[in-house]
Amino acid sequence: NSTPDNGILIFVGGLSEIRAIQNEIEEKLSHRFQYKIFTLHSMLDESHQRNVFNRMPTGVRKIVISTSMAETSITIDDITRVIDSGLMKEASFDDEVKANQLNRVWISQANANQRKGRAGRTQPGKVYRLYSRARYQNIMSDFMQPAMQREALDNLILRLCAMNLTNDPRDVLRGCLNAPEENRMNKSIEKLRKINAIDARLCLSPLGTQLNRMGVDPEIGKMVLFGL
Q1: N or C: which end of the chain has fewer CB within 10 A?
Q2: How far is residue 118's CA from residue 98's CA, in Å, rounded to a whole number?
Q3: Rounded Cα distance, 45 and 200, in Å
Q4: Who contacts 25 (Cβ-Cβ below 8 Å, separation ≥6)?
Q5: Distance from C-alpha of 75 to C-alpha of 189, rounded to nearest angstrom
Q6: Rounded Cα–Cα distance for residues 182 and 193 (Å)
Q7: Which ranges of the chain does DSSP label H, i.e. alpha helix?
Q8: DSSP-based helix, strand, coil % in the chain, nearest 5
Q9: Cα(50)–Cα(42) distance, rounded to whole angstroms?
C-alpha cells in the first residue's frame, strides 16, 4: 500500500548507517515504487528537521531514516511502520584514555518501547524489530544508564561552581536521583584545579570564568585560549 498515510520510520545507530541505508534504498528500490527519503539526526538544522512533517502526494511513500532523536521528541502523523535496528550512539567517558567516546550500543527496553510507540501514533501501525525476543528480554537493560553516571563531569562541575549554589558543587550532585560516583566527582575537581580553572575553595578563577563561557571541554578550551 503506497497511500500518503503509510510512511516508514527506520531507527539506526548513527549518521554513517543513515547514509548507508539511504544509498541502499536508492540503488535497489527506486524502480519499484515512488518514495521520498528524509533523514533525521542532530547534525541537521531545524528547517531541515521540519521537512519530515511534510505530507506526501498520493502514491508517494515517505521514508524517514533517523537516529534515536525521533524516539520521543516528535510525532510524525503519517508514520504507520517502524523498523528498529535496536542500536544507538551513546557518549561515555573512558577512564583509561581519559576522554569522551561515542560508542555504538544496544538500546534499552524503554527505548525499544518508545520506538514502537512511534508507529501509528494517530492511526494503527506496526513495528519490525531487527533483533530477537531473547535479546530484548534477557540482554537489553530496563533503562539506559543516566548521562550523569557515564559522561565526564568537568563541564557540569564548572557550571555549578559558576552558579555558586553551595560551597561544594559535589553537594548538588550528591542530591540528584542518579548521582555520579564520588570518585568521578573528585577526579573532575582535581582536573579543574590542575588546569587552574578553580581554586582551593572551589571558586572559579578568571580562566575558569572564560572556560565556562566557552562550553567546551575545559582542557581543550584552555588550549584554545592559550593558543590565541
Answers
A1: C
A2: 37
A3: 42
A4: 35, 37, 63
A5: 41
A6: 17
A7: 15-28, 46-49, 109-117, 133-134, 147-150, 154-163, 169-174, 182-194, 206-214, 218-227
A8: 40, 20, 40
A9: 13
Residues 104 and 137: beta-carbon distance below 8 Å? no
The pTM (predicted TM-score) of the whole model is 0.81
Which is it for strands 126-129 and 79-84: parallel, antiparallel or unpaired? parallel
In one letter, which amino acid is 173? L
pLDDT tens over the chain, length 228 residues? 445 458 999 999 999 999 999 999 998 887 778 899 999 988 888 888 888 898 888 888 999 999 998 887 678 888 999 999 999 999 888 777 667 788 999 999 999 999 999 987 777 889 999 999 999 999 999 999 998 899 889 999 999 999 988 999 999 999 998 999 999 999 999 999 999 999 999 999 999 999 999 988 899 999 999 987
